[in-house]
Predict the structure.
Amino acid sequence: MRNPDGEGRLDDGEGLVVGVGVRATAAETELLELIRRTLAGAGLPADAVRALATLTGKGGHPAVRAAAAALGVPVTEYPAEALAAVRVPNPSGTVGEAVGTVSVAEAAALAATGGGELLVPKRKTAAATAAVARTPHHRNAGERP
């Protein structure tokens, strides 16, 4: 049985994908700290993270690489066109003008789960954004649909 508030509990076979966005100015530790705070605030275990997901070209950013290495997970990148096709609860016109999609973190998390559920909407720092989605039972996080 699922936790009715969606927090703190994963069923067998489920994992998490953290969708991330970073500005060029993001410090190497900023994203990892945001991810850890976001997971802890939702009562979600960091060891359930199966992948990070982001916009094409952002996977090589030092903050994304450092977070993926610390969590021991791969990074999956999606083109702006693919992310723009994902419905999200918190679209941003500013992000849309800058990168061609109104969402990076939420859309990437959802795209990587291929039908998963957004558990934590985007959380932000000055230069990083993170959102958390739960994978469905039948799918590996970060596996392309």
